[in-house]
What does this fold into?
Amino acid sequence: MGGIGAAGQGAYRTAPTPPRVLEHGLALALRGRCPFCAEVTGSPGILSGAPCDVCGGAYPEDGFGARVRGELAAMSMERFWLVLGLTTGVSVLAAPLSLLALLPQLGALIAFRVWVVGPCLALLAGRRRRVARWTLRLMTTWILTLGSLALFFPCAAPIETALMVSAVWLAGRRYLMWQLAREEAREPIAGVEWLLLLLAAGLVFLVLAIAIGVASTLFAAWQGFLSCVGLE
It folds into this structure.
């Protein structure tokens, strides 16, 4: 019985897949799950067509990984326009209040994390997933820091929000699609991937240094003003 079961299982996995089953598998793959057993898998098999590390299943169709990437690319672009419109509209209403001008930007980052970063990282494995995660974290950190300028120029908050959302979403989406393509091709991590990570880290330190310098200058100016008026 065991031999028959194994043979039947092998025939099932190498036979042509019905369209409905293929669509169901595609939906599972977009959630970072094996198209066969629906288990979360840490291997890159979903994109490359290699067997699942849990059940051993693999789609024989050529281009299944490309379909997964195509669906993710289309879905993330559709949601980009939705998020851009909502956040820009809310920032127009919140413009008179400086602190509230940051809320639409934070909402856009949360949507980007849930709708784009999460599904894409679920399809990456091992070291590439960690490199991509930290590159995106550092990139969004310095972009959000620049977006905090809305606190000082509340009237320009809608423009800053639109620019920030576009920069994070489009740049992050392009980076993730590039990483997914490399994962599908089973390419090892290249020097350019580490370079992008170091560049993102360098930009964060640069922004922090500028912020500290500006804060120190303003504090020194304030202290000088107090000294001039005799309040210190």
User: Anything to note?
Assistant: The helical segments are 2-14, 19-30, 45-48, 64-94, 103-122, 126-147, 157-184, 191-228.
